[in-house]
Specification:
The chain has helices spanning 31-34, 37-42, 86-105, 109-117, 125-146, 151-162; strands spanning 2-6, 9-14, 20-22, 25-27, 45-49, 59-61, 65-69, 74-78, 81-83. It is an alpha+beta fold. Strand 7 and strand 8 form a beta hairpin.
């Protein structure tokens, strides 16, 4: 991204390269990438110094603004950052954990229905153990989420939930009961 600066004020923002006219001189689109930084500055074009964006899982990012800084001879991006509502984040993460548990157990629901209609058809013990472990996993995950009192604590738990090697990421293994899955 680039900015055209006139009289120490950002006049125009260029999000993409394009041919432009400055002071009766036409510049080609490739000027943005071929000219050196100093060559661009001589005609009033500045590369924009982008501000690092926070993790949007936890923060809301406002609209970008751009300002010329004559002390550093740069155009800098700025935007407001606000924390997302902790209770909303916790609710969403807890609901996601519940959904993950439900979708893990759902393929075995037919065994329960079969048992209800024919009590001689028992639910295999390894399926019962698996569903118990999934429910325990879900409960532990939700408890960890609900115990968070600050965004910092929530970030730690959320990172653990979403990281492939995290304590709350890996559901119990169902490879031994695959034969009972029905969708």
């Amino acid at each position: 991204m680039w900015a055209l600066v006139k009289n120490d004020v950002v006049d125009t923002i260029y999000y993409n390269t394009k041919g432009i006219v400055i002071g009766n001189v036409r510049y080609p689109a490739n000027m943005f990438t071929l000219y050196t930084t100093d060559e661009k500055k001589r005609i009033g074009i500045y590369d924009i110094v982008r501000k690092s964006k926070p993790d949007t899982n936890f923060y809301k990012v406002g609209t970008s603004t751009y300002k010329y800084n004559s002390n550093t001879d740069t155009v800098n991006e700025d935007f407001d950052i606000t924390e997302k509502d902790l209770e909303g984040l916790k609710s969403t993460a807890s609901n996601h954990a519940r959904l993950k548990a439900y979708t893990s157990i759902q393929p075995f629901n037919w065994l329960v229905q079969r048992n209800v209609f024919d009590s001689t058809q028992e639910i295999p013990s390894n399926v019962i153990n698996y569903t118990h472990n999934v429910r325990t996993f879900c409960r532990d995950t939700i408890n960890a989420i609900e115990e968070c009192d600050t965004l910092s604590e929530f970030k730690t738990v959320f990172t653990d939930i979403t990281h492939p090697d995290g304590q709350y990421h890996t559901l119990p293994d169902n490879s031994a009961i695959k034969e009972y899955e029905r969708y």
